[in-house]
Design brief:
Largest sheet: 7 strands, mixed
Structural class: alpha/beta
Order of helices and strands: HHHHHEEHEHEHEEHEHEE
Number of strands: 9
Strand content: 15-25%
Shape: elongated
């Protein structure tokens, strides 16, 4: 990068061209987000103050962050922030980065809760990660009793920070399974479990390799954790309770086969995301 004095406008133009040549997605947006992060301003500030000269420190810091992005490190990890449900959440490499399809999981959950007329439901977010599902559900349903678990203490630390930031009361629990809970406690168990086949992990985009593998790896068939929930979750659900999960786009048939072998469930409804892929499954407890 040239050592001469650079204004915001010039730096953004240069960086956009540079990233475009390197094949980085959304080069202009990436440049703006990185620079706004360094300046501790919003992106609008960059346009209003486009002729502002940048200090040597700001340029050096920008260059460091730019190198990280060029190595395929996700932008969300670099700035430690991701927007989800129009809210800002902290993210670190201890948690997977919240994705738009998970918003569909929340939409479906809210629809089910409304249909059931639940005003103060007990909801468990199993494998909460950054806590986005629990936080959003807690904000949308003011009287909900929110509980969230994860196997990772660093992940729970991030989730707690997000809950505090958004003023949502959530009981966080470090847990690998469901056995610490009493039976028939929850109206809803919601989860975005790991569902990628182990053999597919190395083939994923370079950015995804930065994310915690334990939050992605669903075992040999991708159904390790989905299968666990299908076999065990009904014990902890109230009568007519629901298990709601985000799933892989091609897992419907396998999940239907599993459900058919388990009399504890009524059946499944599958919901498409906005790309037209079946990514959410809702399963109602069959009896008592």
């Amino acid at each position: 990068m040239p050592t001469e004095t650079w204004t915001i406008k010039r730096l953004l133009q240069w960086t956009t061209d540079f990233l475009q040549k390197k094949g980085v997605d959304a080069p202009r947006l990436t440049a703006e987000i990185l620079l706004a992060h360094i300046l501790k301003k919003d992106r609008l500030y960059l346009y209003v103050h486009y002729d502002q000269p940048l200090t040597l420190y700001e340029l050096a810091t920008f260059k460091k962050l730019l190198k990280r992005r060029l190595s395929h490190e996700p932008l969300a990890y670099i700035i430690e922030e991701q927007v989800f449900w129009s809210l800002s959440f902290k993210v670190t490499p201890a948690v997977i980065i919240p994705r738009p399809e998970t918003e569909r999981l929340i939409e479906v959950s809210l629809e089910i809760i409304q249909q059931r007329g639940l005003t103060s439901p007990w909801i468990l977010d199993w494998g909460t990660g950054s806590g986005v599902i629990a936080v959003v559900l807690g904000k949308e349903i003011k009287k909900a009793h929110m509980v969230a678990t994860d196997i990772s203490f660093p992940a729970l630390k991030v989730a707690k920070e997000n809950a505090f930031k958004h003023k949502v009361k959530i009981d966080f629990v470090l847990a690998r399974d469901l056995t610490l809970f009493k039976s028939t406690v929850f109206d809803i168990i919601v989860s975005n479990p790991p569902y990628i086949k182990t053999e597919d992990i190395p083939t994923l985009a370079p950015e995804i390799q930065y994310e915690p593998i334990e939050a992605l790896d669903g075992g040999e068939d991708g159904l390790k954790y989905i299968g666990y929930l299908l076999k065990k979750a009904h014990v902890y659900l109230k009568s007519k309770g629901y298990l709601i999960m985000e799933i892989g786009y091609n897992q419907r048939k396998s999940i239907e086969k599993l459900i058919a072998s388990l009399p504890c469930w009524k059946g499944a409804l599958f919901f498409k995301d906005y790309a037209g892929l079946e990514r959410v499954v809702v399963i109602e407890k069959n009896h008592g």
